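Supplementary material to the annual report.
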Amino acid sequence: MIEKIEGGITAAQGFKAAGVHSGVKYRSLDLGLLTSDVPAKCFIGYTSNKVKAAPIQVMMEANPSELQAFVVNSGNANALTGKRGIEDVYTIRAHAAAALGIDEELVGVISTGLIGRFLDMPKILYGIDRAAKELTYGLEADSDFAEAIMTTDTRKKEAAYRVKLEDGSLITIAGVAKGSGMIAPHLKVLQGTTLSFIVTDAVLTENFKGTWQEILDDTFNMISVDGDQSTNDMSVLLANGLSGSEIADEDPNFIAALRKLMKELAYKVVEDGEGVTKVIEVEVRGAQSKEDAVAAVKSIIRSPLVKTAIFGSDPNYGRIMMALGNSGVDFDIEKVKLTIIGSGIEVPILECGMPVFEDQRSVDIVRMAMEGDTVKIIVTLGDGDYSAVGWGCDLSYDYVKINAEYST
Amino acid sequence: MIEKIEGGITAAQGFKAAGVHSGVKYRSLDLGLLTSDVPAKCFIGYTSNKVKAAPIQVMMEANPSELQAFVVNSGNANALTGKRGIEDVYTIRAHAAAALGIDEELVGVISTGLIGRFLDMPKILYGIDRAAKELTYGLEADSDFAEAIMTTDTRKKEAAYRVKLEDGSLITIAGVAKGSGMIAPHLKVLQGTTLSFIVTDAVLTENFKGTWQEILDDTFNMISVDGDQSTNDMSVLLANGLSGSEIADEDPNFIAALRKLMKELAYKVVEDGEGVTKVIEVEVRGAQSKEDAVAAVKSIIRSPLVKTAIFGSDPNYGRIMMALGNSGVDFDIEKVKLTIIGSGIEVPILECGMPVFEDQRSVDIVRMAMEGDTVKIIVTLGDGDYSAVGWGCDLSYDYVKINAEYST
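Predicted assembly:
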């Protein structure tokens, strides 16, 4: 049983949160604090950008197996800040640990926002103190935390599920994400700026790591707003075990629910992509390997020419094939099928690598399909049994506007 | 001696050209014909997109070592057109050969325009007949040919140089290019939709192939408008030997002039990139290998976030480092230097991976530099002796407009 429930990050037992205004941003909430009543088993995926923000460097070095609290600030990424940036992370960690009365090693830290500026530390430390006093659970706390971690996001991204495990116990998985631009995460466990925090009161062990990477690969690692991977991407799973369930590492319901929740949050990120007017879903089928299927999906969802055509509902499907041809994937054009689904219409476009039609009426039908809020592209390569699905968004005037004026 | 001269594709001895209106496009010139009085040694670079237009497939299969004529149509790419597309290319070739009284094997064919539609053959064949009658040399013929091969281009791209070889003989190199969108060529000799035709009356042999690939790699293969490689990219060099010079394969003046001309044409393509308001030049120095330097340049010039920041003159230089970090190149952030040059100002931004400054006045100076028509970014990795330079353009509202409405 997997049941969607109301609420966000504090919906699972024993988790509390707060979101406050520290003053790094001019007006909005900009500092979030998340805690668990007891130390929680943690699983973290980090950006694979070679330029890593200071908090990413510190967390990767610490490589914690358990955490009890997470401090997140928005408005400043603490990236390209050298040794001073690193020291600031340690100061935040120590300050939060003292405010919460826990070990520093149990505090995680992440930042998101402008790159290349030092943190305004007095504001951050003041924010931590305030957040520590406001920690609580419930819808308001969920909402404040979700808001405090946003940058160019226009809405909060939360989800929660109640799951009955095979042992009969009831557990909760809840999550929150942020991200709107600089989105093309490629998160590696242990080693996205989309940030996501997923918490559960289920019991997990170290052995869950492989499954966590697999789910990340199929969800957050398959979304793209602009093809640019951030210096600060991070995806965190905290499992505090307070449900008293059996170990859920291999529980099919738990895995299915976690996958569902992470896909939902990842989808919300592209749905709120900078300047988005339409979500693009790309599915590649019949590839020779999973890697090929993923590469083909990514090449299509990242192509500016595909993205602008979809923005304009321009039935220029040749661009999809151009992008497929640039993916580095080997295929036989004479076996390729292309279908576009939108506005409730499913339109076959190519069969055996050639247009199914050529008259104006058919082109108008393609345009109608492309006018939907969600445009789904299905490419069948006919070369094998592997498939992949990814999500992206169109490229609009507003994307340009938002990013031409971001830091100013 | 390398001297820039007036004129385009017919500036070299023995070359003639014409550009006519065949009717594939509504009004403008859309069919170009280029001929040499005698068969010319030919060197061709083709798109490495896996989806190749019909004329690319035919030319790669024919793999000609000599050509005497080239037919180019714009408005329709003859791509995704299957067997019928291939047959159309053979028909064009045979028709042009008959009109010119030469062997079919001596006729090259290429198309550029919309993908996924069959050619309107009666119009194309009519156009060839008309062009064959109008063949001539001089500025008007140059201009007509240059115009006939354009798609979203807003201006013609021509250049010509007179060169004194080491043996004392005078030769001419002349060229024309088109390209505005779907530009990120990766041309392979013998095996990019920017098209370029370079002609010379110098004498070249088969041995020149390696040098030709090297020059392509440093010029056309280092430009990007949108990071999308076309199904139709092609770069052609024809050498008819009519100057009566010695073999110029290794002549330093010849090589320098050819490189200069191809860089000039490639630069003109980005200068006329779709919606361009600024040219971006990226130089990466101190890389461990040439491949690393090239990968780093390409990652920066293709990043939508870098491109929009430059469009808005937004001093958000952190995005340059984000893009560098996504290039797959290994480097030590603590050695990285970043400099931006524009509006006649050179601004050091990062030293040892950290901002050189942080006050508002300095940020204003970065903005001033970014307000230039050309913004040059220099990244020094400090890890080795290799460097590369590439050219791209900003991402503006007009880029979105042009591409959201292309086919309609």
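The domain at 2-271 of chain B is CATH 3.60.70.12 (L-amino peptidase D-ALA esterase/amidase).
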